[in-house]
Amino acid sequence: MDLFWISFVxxxxxxxxxxxxxxxxxxxxxxxxxxxxxxxRTMLPLGQICKExxxxxxPNITRLYAEYxxxxxxxxxxxxxxxxxxxxxxxxxxxxxISNNAFNNFKILKFLDISNNSLRVYREKGDHILVFPTSxxxxxxxxxxxxxxxxxxxxxxLQNLYQLTTLQIDGLKNTPFPKCYRYxxxxxxxxxxxxxxxxxxxxxxxxxxxxxxxxxxxxISSCNITSIxxxxxxxxxxxxxxxxxxxxQLGFQNLRNVSFGLQFTNIQVLNYSKVYxxxxxxxxxxxxxxxxxxxxxxxxFSANSNRLILFETNAxxxxxxxxxxxxxxxxxxxxxxxxxxxVCLSNLTELYSNMQNAAHKPSLYFQQPENLVPKYASxxxxxxxxxxxxLRNISNSIDGCPYFEPNKRINFSEHLPRFPKxxxxxxxxxxxxxYNVTSIFINPPNNEIEYxxxxxxxxxxxxxxxxxxxxxxxxDLSRNYCSYVRPIATKYLSSVENLQFHQNFLGxxxxxxxEGSQIFDxxxxxxxxxxxxxxxxxxxxxxxxxxxxxxxxxxxxxxxDAWTVDVSxxxxxxxxxxxxNALRSLPRSLRTKLEDNLKRHGGRFKIDLRNNTIACTCEExxxxxxxxxxxxxxxxxxxxxxxxxxxxxxSADVFxxxxxxxxxxxxxxxxxxxxxxxxxxIFLAILIGALIYKNRWKLRYLIRLSKIRHFGYRDMTNETxxxxxxxxxxxxxxxxxxxxxxDKLVPYLENQxxxxxxxxxxFQPGRNIIDNILQAIRNSKKTxxxxxxxxxxxxxxxYEFNMARMDNVYSRQGSNCLVVVxxxxxxxxxxxxxxxxxxxxxxxxxxxxxxxxxxLFWQSLHEAIECIN
Length: 869
What we know:
The chain has 19 helices and 42 strands. It is α/β, with parallel strands linked by helices. Among the domains are: 1-119, Ribonuclease Inhibitor (Leucine-rich repeat, LRR (right-handed beta-alpha superhelix)); 670-709; 724-866, 3-Layer(aba) Sandwich (Rossmann fold). The protein has a 23-stranded mixed sheet, with no helix packed on it. The radius of gyration is 37 Å and the shape is globular.
């Protein structure tokens, strides 16, 4: 975080205090309990506001916000009554003049923001000089450079502000800060950034900042810098934080000159992000670029968004040994020898490398400087630290740090990758990693890693263990399209306490009674488990049996319709998120366990059942009464979906009243229900017996037909494979989509010379529908399914889909004879597990009405039918 603005952020947080009342002229302002008055955007004159403040004795207003009020002048008369203020915010007005004596009576004003106005702050020779209270500690003058640039401007004389610690100001081209700033010994934080105002410093010379001898933090981000002299920061011996980010014409090679001067400072944090255009060619970090960093006290280094592709061999060893945090996000890193040398960063504790190879909006190209390769220019001699003998000594002094001799062939088998021993946090999210995770041994085994985020990649299968991670506490594997995990894969994760596994496809493997019930057995210390959005419908009963320390379980946004998990060992469970499922109740075992945990640990448990359907029926009476008893534990209780026994939605208040009357209502009908059930059972038994006897020959026929259908899909060894087809494609669709089929699909495909089979046109009249369907599928080279919401609701359509799927698997040996056309978006909850599994594992076509997209669709469909696998 930018330390420059710590005080400003603190004040801004206080600004959000909610305890307030109307006050000020015409009661248009808001006064807060922390002695703040906010009159921003009220268009009240400054004189009226200050007069009101002067009349107020309780509470004592010390901070005034009068932003965006159209104020154009500040003089002593307007400020009468505001003399007791400690902070004044006047940003976003149209102030063009401040009189000499305006602040004469201000003795305790510490914070003044007059940014984004029209003041002549940057005086030329003979211009008026602004006079500010000598008590100021923070002054914001940025955004006042709105007149035409003449090239004769200079920075204001602020030497009388001997208590000033923080200054934000615009940056002037070829204009060093005047020598009078040497007398402001308290000035520690300077922000000269184009992100907050005007800044144009194409060349930073050795005397640009030489008068700011006491600076600890300097922010010159987004200042159009193209070149920096080697001694630009040499005299800033107290400098700890330097931000050079978003100077997109600076280039990475200028880091040589920057780092040379930083050797003589107390530098702790360097932000060198986005010094290169988004769409430039890749950047190779060379030894000469970072050589002088070795001799600095740098703790944190950021080089995000620079299109870095790799480090020159042995260059990483030149990063300073004091380095703790490295940020290399949004770059283009590729595999090379430098990856084996990350271990040379012996004191590295945090590595941020998210968003590798990320895509960027093409519109950014026109908003950034031309993609030119920055010219390498430096008047420095060769850096002594980049000599091979010096690099070899660095390697020898760090355990496990390899040194690679120039121009010598490397045997990778002799150099296993190692983590820096002190590394605690590793971020590799959204980096297009696409792997089936196999066994990886982490070296050294006694590593210090506590936090790993590899979310947003494509780690689609995890079959073997990775580790060991003896101190790992947080692991994020979310958004990885993962559909398979073997129990042995979690072998080295016993120390994990927080596992984020949401937005994957674990539903099928979690339902497996063998592997699915053991996936989490090694996670004996996990306290937080997130399995949200994993297409879960059913889970093996013992899937969480070893998670005795589990406190928070998130199973939201799945398709769970019944709780099947054994909770007898979940003795620490306090929070259960079941939002967006299909549950109607919770079993007694789960309710009892939550009550036991409440007694055992105190406090209260929390359950989120929003977006499920809770029906007020006698069958669920015990559960409903339990809900009412613990309604304060039900997250968002009044937003639940409640229904009466007819299916009509009711409010929470009506639901509560109905549950309270369930005992009386259900008791009255118990005897009637029992007698009716007995009578109905007898009647149904007689009726079914009569129907069976009456239709005995028909039933025999149906049984025979079922046998024929079954053996029709057996791969008989003595059958000759059918390679001659009557039709090119059988079109399976719902009647609701018949207009699309008859008006568009059939004309297009048949005009292309394809022969199609349609149930309304080509099925043999008088023949059994099932026979017609099976014959159409087997006599067609491909089956084209027009998938829509009506399709999945149709029994016959789903029958056609499943028969085509079985034909593909058993009769045609997986030759992809089924072509799925996604005609419209279908909620996952409407589709069967078989259909979801097919769509996840096979490519489908998506219909669009966009002119160009539709043309591509028809071409792709024609090719899919013609294709012979």
